[in-house]
Design goal:
Length: 292
């Protein structure tokens, strides 16, 4: 990833319906979203000039906002068009994209009535979230300190900015301890997800993945489940206890940024980067590149 700070780059960002210079896309320090996390976003990728599952991402932005009590003031079709326009305006073919919707600076307090909803879409070149070398040999994950909250505590089905505070704490701690990422448990102590990706395990030819009760039901997650079933691989969604990792043979992460990334280690547990994981990596790559 480029070392340039994200507020000082060339290019353009779609901001409240207009294409403006990158450096002009600013918000005030007393913006509600900054103080109270009233913000939702998407992470999506463009491959060969086409955003993968664009409408699903734009719809999820709408759905996440509704869970936080506000409505995105642009339709799904308009958000789709904004994403395509941003790609073209910045002359990008392969890119990471960030649509975001947030409450503005009209209100400063817990109450939100009267605050304006803003929307922006940015795009930039971004290679794989993890290095090619790390992906090939499998990532090492620490078992995280902080857990995912109960769906009765937070709107866990939304892609809301506030939910990622826990992920940042865990990610930073894992890096300081020499790991690539961290595996979080849910509020019950069951396996949940990594800091920015869903997780799968393989045992006896069957894939197991946590039920998305208090984690994001990722678009990549669902895509990989479809790819696995197309190859005749059974996929089971269920609660998974941490001690079960001792019996799993393979493990991998899925996400827009992570794509399909194998794991070699989670805390005291070890896994091989096996044929099933490699096959799904290849299938996913072909799908997003339009090589089916």
């Amino acid at each position: 990833m480029s070392a340039l700070p994200f507020d000082d780059r060339d290019g353009y960002i779609w901001f409240d319906g207009e294409m403006i210079p990158w450096r002009d896309a600013k918000v005030h320090v007393l913006t509600h979203a900054l103080h109270y996390a009233s913000c939702v976003f998407e992470g999506q990728r463009a491959y060969n000039g086409k955003v993968f599952k664009l409408t699903e991402h734009s719809q999820r932005l709408h759905d996440s906002a509704e869970m936080l009590g506000y409505t995105v003031p642009y339709s799904v079709a308009e958000i789709n068009q904004a994403a395509e326009d941003v790609l073209a305006k910045n002359n990008l073919v392969n890119a990471y994209m960030r649509p975001v919707a947030w409450r503005g600076s009209e209100m400063m307090g817990v109450a939100t009535k009267g605050s304006k909803i803003h929307v922006a879409v940015a795009a930039w070149e971004w290679p794989s979230y993890f290095s090619p070398e790390a992906r090939l040999k499998g990532l090492r994950l620490e078992i995280a300190k902080w857990r995912r909250p109960s769906p009765l505590t937070a709107p866990t089905a939304s892609k809301a900015a506030g939910l990622y505070m826990i992920a940042s704490l865990n990610k930073d701690a894992a890096g300081e301890n020499g790991y690539d990422d961290a595996l979080m448990m849910d509020y019950r102590g069951m396996i949940a997800e990594a800091t920015g990706a869903n997780i799968f395990f393989l045992k006896d030819g069957v894939l197991h993945t946590p039920t998305p009760e208090c984690i994001l039901d990722g678009i990549t997650r669902r895509t990989v489940m479809d790819l696995a079933r197309a190859r005749g691989i059974q996929v089971v969604e269920r609660m998974i206890r941490p001690e079960e990792m001792a019996d799993f043979e393979q493990a991998f992460l899925t996400g827009t940024a992570a794509e399909v990334t194998p794991l070699s280690e989670i805390g005291p547990y070890r896994f091989v980067v096996g044929d099933v994981c490699r096959q799904l990596m290849e299938d996913y790559d072909k799908l997003v590149q339009g090589k089916e």
